[in-house]
Amino acid sequence: MARRILIVDDNATNLKLAASVLENGGFTVDQAADAEQAMSRLERVVPDLILMDIALPGMSGLALTRVLKSDARLKCVPIVALTASAMKGDDSKAFEAGCDGYISKPIDTRKFTEQILAFLAAERSQ
């Protein structure tokens, strides 16, 4: 059975690229353009991993991560920050909010699937 990934990103191009790479890697991919869409998708299905853009319109990705990590049903789902905001200290802000990993955009399409598999393997080993 294919592993399910939820990608939360307001940039349609980034969302399409990440989804395409992961689908080609054998994953089932759900997409959301903002926190509201993400919450709606998460009411119906619990993914194996969430890729979270930090700079979302409305509720930020970090705020949404805090909400998801406080939900008993979702707190064990690994959340990986996926952001173009690669300033010094941004990774620590993501980890403080509850993210389990950090990937800078633009993604390296040759390594992206391997990165996701590594996060999933690390989560399974814990």
Describe this structure in words.
Strand 1 (4-8), helix 1 and strand 2 (28-32) form a beta-alpha-beta unit. This protein has one domain: Rossmann fold (3-Layer(aba) Sandwich), CATH 3.40.50.2300. The mean pLDDT is 92. The two termini are 21 Å apart. A 5-stranded parallel beta sheet has the order 2-1-3-4-5, with helices on both faces. By secondary structure, the chain is of the alpha/beta class. 43% of the residues lie in helices and 18% in strands. The longest helix is centred in the C-terminal third of the chain and has 14 residues, at 112-125.
Record the SSE blueprint:
Blueprint: E1 4-8, H1 12-24, E2 28-32, H2 35-44, E3 49-52, H3 61-69, E4 79-83, H4 90-97, E5 101-104, H5 112-125
Parallel strand pairs: 1-2, 1-3, 3-4, 4-5
The named CATH superfamily: Response regulator
* CATH fold title: Rossmann fold
What's the Cα radius of gyration?
13 Å
* Oligomerization status of the protein chains: single chain
With strands numbered from the N-terminus, the spatial order across the biggest sheet is: 2-1-3-4-5
State the distance separating the first and last CA atoms: 21 Å
How many helices does DSSP assign? 5
The portion of residues forming beta strands comes to 15-25%
Number of strands: 5
Q: Which CATH architecture is right? A: 3-Layer(aba) Sandwich
- Outline type: globular
Order of helices and strands: EHEHEHEHEH
Under CATH at level 1, the class stands as Alpha Beta
